[in-house]
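Methods, example record. To illustrate the input and output format used throughout this study, we show the complete record for NAD-dependent epimerase/dehydratase domain-containing protein. The sequence lines were provided to the predictor; the line carrying structure tokens was produced by it.
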Amino acid sequence: MLPSSRSRPQPRPAARSWSFSEMDFSDPKRRSRYVSKIIMLLLLMALCAVMLTQPPCHRRAPSVFSIHELGVTHVLVTGGAGYIGSHAALRLLKDSFRVTIVDNLSRGNIGAVKVLQNLFPEPGRLQFIYADLGDPKAVNRIFAENAFDAVMHFAAVAYVGESTLEPLRYYHNITTNTLVVLEAMATHNVKTLIYSSTCATYGEPEKMPITEETPQFPINPYGKAKKMAEDIILDFSKSRKSDMSVMILRYFNVIGSDPEGRLGEAPPPELREHGRISGACFDAALGIIPGLKVKGTDYETPDGTCVRDYIDVTDLVDAHVKALNKAERGKVGIYNVGTGRGRSVKEFVEACKKATGVDIKVDYFSRRPGDYAEVFSNPAKINRELNWTAQHTKLHESLRIAWMWQMRHRSGYGGPQAMIL
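The corresponding predicted structure is encoded as:
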């Protein structure tokens, strides 16, 4: 007879009690790995305990520049070591803004930064970062490590004559670098941009004065690169992802310096040939160059020389700050910043002679490539919407103040010692 399927079940083996050693260390290799992990865990626990028991003074506090602070507006000033950018940084600091200057010092002066640091030494007022806007990784890192509320974008090579000789450099430096800044702003949710543009985007208009509606047909790489940058900014501002406050300021020929004599214009010697006419006049008055070279005497103007709208740097930075204060989320403002009056190169030279007291020698040459005959603004829109009007309109007086700074700083901001922060 077959055994019944319901026969008594076999007894189960007794439940085995697994010891720690039997479970993990039965294999020598596994034992070694587990020991290493345990040691590492113990070390990490010890490190955490040490860090937590350290007094607060031994812990690194976050920088005030990396924190959004109620009632404080933190402005990134690109090109803030340059002529216009340093004056803008000075005005912002005087108005109690927090300022970060980013500059690669290719056109700027570390001496100007030193002046600002000495004037505003309090923690959390001003920091300088040496960086190139052409390096996207560096720019992104700067935005990641700082809590910016707004950007004033001045950084740019800015000589018409030089732009015709090195056009690719101008497109990279102005257009591409502006795109890099804009991308960083978008990534890090910085919503306010004050863009420092130029009247060179208009080219040589048929009608004067220039209004904001005047068609833009730039005739040199400098103006073309600036217009491309404007177009990029405007296109992005219209996108649904933007919601930006944008102010574009197109300004004319800048002169003058800080009325209290703290800052001035000090271009590198190799750029004097391409520099502003005021710098050339002062160099001639100081004997650095034998005389002033005036390029072009056959333009269709009253005396044959170019006519320009000369704006004092103090008025210019005032317009930028007023634009910042009036910026509104989701809106774009475009403004001409000028006096509304054109002066010829010959008039300018006579004013410079009067300001310096030197009978400057003048040599006349053929036209410079990329120049245009006559450009001056109609500032009605900025007068009306930003309540801005040029205050320093006496050409001789602006040049006199700038000349005083030049006389006190014959070697610019100084020699090698000026490089030490």
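Annotations derived from this record:
The longest strand covers residues 192-198.
Confidence is low (pLDDT under 50) at residues 1-25, 415-421.
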